[in-house]
Amino acid sequence: xxxxxxxxxxxxxxxxxxxxxxxxxxxxxxxxxxxxxxxxxxxxxxxxxxxxxxxxxxxxxxxxxxxxxxxxxxxxxxxxxxxxxxxxxxxxxxxxxxxxxxxxxxxxxxxxxxxxxxxxxxxxxxxxxxxxxxxxxxxxxxxxxxxxxxxxxxxxxxxxxxxxxxxxxxxxxxx
Length: 175
Fold this sequence. Notes:
alpha+beta, single chain, elongated
């Protein structure tokens, strides 16, 4: 490569990085407004009659599944609400700026869970028969990346509260 080409490639990369950082900062600011988290909160309030004692948060999970040479990524999004001894989970979707939900949600307690298993940031929840019900992470910062990661949610307090809740909940369920 000639020096002129190297300079052009370096300039292109620098511009791409700056554009990404600006986009990320804008999405973080949008998340701080609380608009998307409010939509998640409305889902829980609609489905969980006694939601006032719960902390409400957004949770997500991404997994890879490979078939032959092809790898497919699957994205899952949840509205969750938790308080000591109980976790309410409902799958959600984001489309056209609106949050919709699937089903009526599930209230998970030590009475209907068999075990919990943590891997990295995520936790998987299993029923009494050992069947995985769901798995997810609660991150403090979530920014819209594409149609598969559509939320701008900043939830530092909720993420910290979930970490403390999960530690206690694992002890209750796993014994």
